[in-house]
TrEMBL record:
It comes from Thermus aquaticus. Belongs to the binding-protein-dependent transport system permease family. It is a multi-pass membrane protein. The gene is ugpA_2. This is sn-glycerol-3-phosphate transport system permease protein UgpA. Gene3D superfamilies: MetI-like (1.10.3720.10).
Length: 303
């Protein structure tokens, strides 16, 4: 029988001690995740399978009846279309602005720190503060933007009170709020591109535009893929700026999916119905993320 040496026994004891210490550090985070994510999700699933009275009492099991009612509701499908249209406006705009900002601060030059700070400020500003500032800026009577249009001899526009303009205006506000975070991630991706590759492309005669399309963009594709997914999920769950600037109006033109859930829960007091809408949104986001990984992930070039 071979006996373990004292050194190996001490090594195993030290490893077990480190594993116990690591587990102790991770357990609080796991507990908080379970408490604030898993438990509410389970409660939402349970609630969506029941019917309740106006005050949330007298719960009766109803199976999938709430889901059938939601899927047969024209107002629900209108909010879905509004959400998808909103995302189609926000995602390209924010990615384009974030990429332009990242390219601007990619290379070191005098004053680059100022621009990096300026872009990051859009992320540091809380949603409520940004919404109030945009509300002043876009006010139909006293807003700075309409004053500027008048000074140029143009007609003022009802940016937040027109059914045609409200959703595009909110898309611009949402893209502005996220461009700082997007630029930071894309700048990190640009700085990971090997300088030798860019120099080799220059030696081969590639100009700036060719280097961008043939070298920079393919090597940046993993970061672009991640940022695109984050921006898409954020745009599909945008709530704060919509609630503070338009409250779903005018004429429900900005009532997106998640705002429909809020209205049904806290204005119509249909909590089980709203739970069903929220869970359908959750499933939609999971399926959409999986499809994006499967379809677009193949076109990502990993160095």
């Amino acid at each position: 029988m071979v006996r373990a040496s004292p050194s190996s026994a001490r090594a195993r004891a030290h490893r077990r001690k480190e594993e116990a210490w690591a587990l102790g550090l991770v357990l609080p985070a796991i507990g908080l995740f379970f408490l604030f994510y898993v438990v509410p999700l389970g409660q939402a699933v349970w609630l969506s399978l029941h019917q309740e009275d106006l005050f949330g009492r007298d719960l009766r099991y109803s199976g999938l009846e709430n889901y059938r009612q939601v899927l047969a509701d024209p107002a629900f499908w209108k909010s879905v279309r509004t959400t998808l249209l909103f995302a189609l406006m926000v995602v390209p705009l924010e990615l384009l602005l974030g990429l332009l900002a990242a390219l601007l601060v990619w290379r070191p030059y005098p004053g680059v720190a100022f621009f990096r700070t300026l872009f990051f400020l859009t992320t540091a500003v809380p949603t409520a503060v940004a919404a109030v500032a945009w509300g002043w800026f876009l006010h139909p009577v006293g807003g700075y933007l309409n004053h500027a249009l008048k000074a140029l001899g143009l007609s003022p526009q009802p940016w937040l009170t027109s059914p045609e303009l409200a959703l595009p205006t909110l898309a611009v506000v949402t893209a502005w709020a996220g461009v700082g975070f997007t630029a930071i991630l894309l700048t990190a991706g640009l700085q990971n591109i090997p300088e030798e590759v860019l120099e080799a492309a220059s030696v081969d005669g590639a100009g700036p535009w060719t280097r961008f399309w043939r070298v920079v963009l393919p090597l940046l594709s993993p970061t672009l893929f991640l940022v695109g997914l984050l921006v898409l999920l954020k745009s599909l769950t945008a709530f704060g700026q919509i609630h503070l600037l338009t409250r779903g109006g005018p004429m429900e033109s900005t009532t997106v999916w998640i705002y429909r859930v809020y209205q049904d829960a806290f204005f119509n007091f249909r909590f089980a119905y709203a739970a069903s809408e929220g869970l359908l949104l959750f499933l939609f986001l999971v399926v959409l993320a999986a499809l994006q990984f499967r379809l677009l992930g193949r076109r990502v070039h990993y160095a």
